[in-house]
Amino acid sequence: MTPGRFIVLEGMDGSGKSSQATALADWLEQQGQQVVRCHDPGATPTGEAIREILLHRHDLHLAGESEMLLYMAARAQLVREVIEPALANQAWVVSDRFLMSNIVYQGHAGGLDPDVVRQVGQVATGGREPDLTLVLDIDLATAATRLDRPLDKLEQRGDAYRERLRQGYQFEAERAQAVVIDASAEKQTVTASLLAAVSETFPELHGPVGG
Questions:
Q1: Residue 40 DSSP SS3
Q2: Model's pTM, two decimal places?
Q3: Which of 107, 138, 132, 135 is nearest to 121 (CA)?
Q4: ∠ at Cα 130 (125, 136), nearest 5°?
Q5: Torsions phi, psi for 15 (to 5 deg)
Q6: Regarding beta strands 132-137 and 179-182, do their DSSP bridges make them parallel or antiparallel, or are they unpaired?
Q7: What are φ and ψ of residue 113, in 5° steps?
Q8: What is the rounded CA–CA span in Å between residue 190 and residue 192?
Q9: What percent of the chain has a predicted confidence (pLDDT) above 90?
Q10: Are 10 and 100 in contact (CB under 8 A)?
Q11: Alpha-carbon torsion 165, 182, 98, 14, what sign?
Q12: Which of 17, 144, 186, 188 is the most buried (most CB within 10 A)?
């Protein structure tokens, strides 16, 4: 077993992050690694309570700053209750979203200063950063066809907002030297690209990419 690493999947809703996170976690386990999977916001009792407020309480109208700080509170609990203990135990952590989501959603798309969001994020995370960020990039039309469920509060903000999200992710991916994956392809093709990127980044993983 190799020392644990922290991998984050980012991207707009409809990009397939959740299913790809599952595929990655399964593959890492096949390589003999201990894996902890989480989602942000959530994965702790406090985080799940905050997630309900942020995504499903349509009766609450949050200021952008309030929304951002609630995400940060959930993330602070996630880092301290889940991510740091897992890494200390040499587990690999696969997270569906992390700080980049705040920077893009409340910053680039929501009107707050992305650099201010980034600075607050450093406090919330205690400086913990991913060892690898994978950004699943997808066009708006394709993403819309994959949202076959009731939309949450953020997903209901319209195409102009979603276009700002995509541009924000493209900007932040370049800034963070993240790996951008074309998520508009078939699921198996996306998974193959993702696993290839992980294998290249972490040569200590020796298993076949096909799983």
A1: coil
A2: 0.92
A3: 107
A4: 115
A5: -85, -10
A6: parallel
A7: -70, 115
A8: 5
A9: 78
A10: yes
A11: positive
A12: 17
Tell me, letter by letter, the H, E, C secondary structure of 46-85. Answer: HHHHHHHHHHHCCCCCCCHHHHHHHHHHHHHHHHHHHHHH
Q: What is the token pair recorded at 99? A: 């700080």
49 and 144 Cβ atoms separated by less than 8 Å: no
Q: Which tens digits make up the pLDDT trace of 158-180?
A: 688 889 999 999 999 999 999 99
Backbone angles phi and psi of 137, in degrees to 5: -95, 135
CA distance 197 to 205: 12
CATH architecture of 6-201: 3-Layer(aba) Sandwich (3.40)
Q: Which pLDDT tens digit goes with each residue over 67-89?
A: 999 999 999 999 999 999 999 99
Domain boundaries, the chain: 6-201
CA dist., res. 3 & res. 103, Å (int):
29
